Amino acid sequence: MALRSHYIVVLALLLSETWIEYGNSQDDIDLTKGASFIFGDSLVDAGNNNYLQTLSKADITPNGIDFKASGGTPTGRYTNGRTIGDIVGEELGEPRYALPFLAPNTTGRAILYGVNYASGGGGILNATGSIFVNRLSMDIQVDYFNITRKQIDKLLGASEARDYLHKNSIFSITIGSNDFLNNYLLPVVSMGARISQNPDTFVDDMINHLRTQLTRLYRLDARKFIVGNVGPIGCIPYQKTINQLKENECVSLPNKLAQQYNAKLKDLLQQLNENLPGSTFAYANVYDLVMEVITNYAKYGFSTASKACCGDGGQYAGVIPCGPTSTMCSDRDKHVFWDPYHPSQAANLLIAKQLLDGDQRYISPINLRQLRDL
Ligand SMILES: *[C@@H]1O[C@H](CO)[C@@H](O)[C@H](O)[C@H]1NC(C)=O
Ligand SMILES: *[C@@H]1O[C@H](CO)[C@@H](O)[C@H](O)[C@H]1NC(C)=O
Ligand SMILES: *[C@@H]1O[C@H](CO)[C@@H](O)[C@H](O)[C@H]1NC(C)=O
């Protein structure tokens, strides 16, 4: 018995070595390949929450079952395979996935290929996600980038560091869903906020905070930004299950709030494009993109856009989060949703493709490949 568990520990170490070693040759960093600095929530978390005392965790099976770089073991990603951030980085030719900021080995020249600050449960507002006890909210993610920023200065020297950030680095921000799902719409925790703030005031609060956060990143030499709007959060299996909706229905209040925020986000990014010299802010219309995939799921090769692949409870397996004892579907690529909250790798691939090469419907004023080549 003891021998066997020892063997398992050794095997686990070997597997994690393989994963950490992926593309990580410390000495021959090629600065022309570019970097991704990724901010956001569980949609793009690549393992930060593994290092937090939190109720929001994805380092449990079967998460990551289709993630090749880890051999299918969980990494802390809240999906079966790659996140949108991973896919975009790969497509842009970055030699490795952006490393989680909190991982002990995210040090030295490895950070020059990018760092990931995203955290499951995190939001634009500080109070968002407090039901999970711990998470990195956007203010803290920017504080952490400020630490990375100084490390880059040390590695490259001030002038080359500035150039590298201005020209070869893409800053992606995927945040806002939790401010609604795990703050404003939460019956118990947010009672105060919801009673004292109407939707307009709450959304304005979000936009004002985000303006400050994006401006801080700009002051730290970020220039090429892509900011995702909030997706149709009324259509996720969790919302559909607890509201006992029909297959093709979505909950209207969460979607209305998302659209209200999205309209103001688009204006904000336009203002920042005009007011912050040398910057480009691309607006990623994730809402319309995901809605299109959900509405016409069969056209994209999916068998369902309502039922979670991994989860339990109710008609859409949308109550109990994905974990070792969950029911899991056998055709993971045919589900738009991996779990009650998050898209599958197959859906992430479709979304990433549009952000990279799509037209003004889904990304404006330019797409990611054009942003990279600026
Ligand atoms: C992390 O880095 C240390 C020091 O470079 C190394 O000894 C260790 O094996 C690394 N850990 C992993 C999991 O790669
Ligand atoms: C949010 O929390 C951080 C860290 O605790 C703090 O530095 C920041 O001032 C807070 N922001 C606001 C708007 O309260
Ligand atoms: C970055 O950190 C320094 C302190 O080390 C602070 O003076 C500066 O204001 C910070 N910058 C931003 C944009 O937060």
Helix and strand sequence: HEHEEHHEHHHEHHEHHEH
**Strand content of the residues, in percent?**
5-15%
Number of spatially distinct domains: 1
The rough form would be described as globular
| CATH homologous superfamily assignment | SGNH hydrolase
End-to-end Cα distance: 58 Å
Strand segment tally: 7
CATH fold naming: Rossmann fold
CATH class: Alpha Beta
Q: Strands of the biggest beta sheet: in what spatial order?
A: 2-3-1-4-5-6-7
Which ligands are bound? 2-acetamido-2-deoxy-beta-D-glucopyranose
Largest sheet: 7 strands, mixed
List low-confidence stretches: 1-25
Helix proportion range: 40-55%
Return the average pLDDT rounded to an integer. 91
The CATH architecture name reads 3-Layer(aba) Sandwich
Radius of gyration: 20 Å
* Number of continuous helical runs: 12
Instruction: Give the helix/strand class.
Output: alpha/beta
